[in-house]
Amino acid sequence: MKKLKAENKLWQSKNLKSDSETRVLKFTTANDKIYDLLLVPFDILGSIAHAKMLCDVGLLSKNEFKKIHLELKKLYKLASTNKFKIDKNVEDVHSAVEIILTSKIGEAGKKLHTGRSRNDQALLDICLYLRSETKNIVALSQILFNQLIALSEKNKNVFLPGYTHLQVAMPSSFGLWFASFAESLIDDLNLFHAAYYSIDKNPLGSAAGFGSSFPISREKTTNYLGFSQIRVNSANAQLSRGKIEKTFAVALSGLAFTLSKFSMDVTLYLSQNFGFLSLPNDLTTGSSIMPHKKNPDLFELVRAKCNRVIATPNELSLLINNLPSGYHRDFQLSKEIIFPAISSMKEVLDILNFVLPKLIVNKNISSDERYKYIYSVEAINELVKDGISFRDAYRLVADKISSGGFLPKTKSKQTHIGSVDNLSNHLLVNEFKNKIKQFNFDRAENALKKLLG
Hints:
CATH superfamily of the largest domain: Fumarase/aspartase (Central domain)
Strand content: under 5%
Structural class: mainly alpha
Order of helices and strands: HHHHHHHEEHEHEHHEHHHEHHHH
CATH class of the largest domain: Mainly Alpha
Shape: elongated
Helix content: 55-70%
Number of strands: 6
Number of helices: 18
Number of domains: 2
Largest sheet: 2 strands, antiparallel
CATH architecture of the largest domain: Up-down Bundle
């Protein structure tokens, strides 16, 4: 790829080579170009859609568009194979794509920026990137959901003591426990769908936040990029900067909350004091001085990574809060917050999908003496069915427990939906499938394939 000079900045009217400029460039770009590499494919897709629209409205000739389209597709292929590089002397992804394009095809490349600003260009890249990552996270979540449901069905009759306040409470089952986290993933899917609704609006054409006097067609770029809607108000497009990232971060934090709690449970259940679960040796770690140790490091790190993700919305709030309307360079740092959180969440989902099928369930927990009072509530319920008031029945059973005369039954039967004996997992499966359909990922994917065709 052609070496680019230090003065290659789209906003400069003349070449500057001072030491001050070098220091300012270093400070204002910082790590931004590292994260911009993730945006390269989306910047190129946005540029193709914009160029196609410019051709449609007569601001580019068909021949100019053909040159731009052909070269951008080559750059997209480079980006898709991680071979696209942003030169150290180039300010950002937008500059890199346009400068390389112009170096390849000349004057036509210089016309590409007609009718747009780096403001709506950057916002578009973020929307396309978050839209893509939503699909990736939902796909990984679906694998996890299916595994939890499978484990729930496989272990639906395996006793698991329920705890509240970390005290023995009531009888439960591994089926109920696994399925509870599966349903929690449905709630998380709702958060991602809400975030997706905001992300899936086309900001291109809002320019710097005040629109354009060129006869552009925002409807066309919306269709070319597979967006469901236009972000109508030009000024609101800039108001959405940071807010979109935060909305997505809230969805991430919801999912992280579910997985952190699940990992905490697993960590407890793997300990000798509980002994509800175990792992193969190759999925645990040892101690440098204690040869008997089998540490659940995987789940501890999942918990830690998730807890960091949970903090992401707060960190974004501190960055963007109290900024006036319009674009500000503060927004650049949002990438340093949200991008690593997305990467971390995908790593967590991936490792959980790998480890979950290897969890070993203890099927002999109920014989432990510490759970002899776990059916006390069932004893109360039996007395109530015989006509005794609940409060009187409670006192009778409590007195027997205190005197050591309580002889519990070791079986109960629940019939209502979502209970130990009626998990109703089919309802969860149907709901999850319906939620995924609501995203309509195919619309965006088909549009982008057509754009590259």
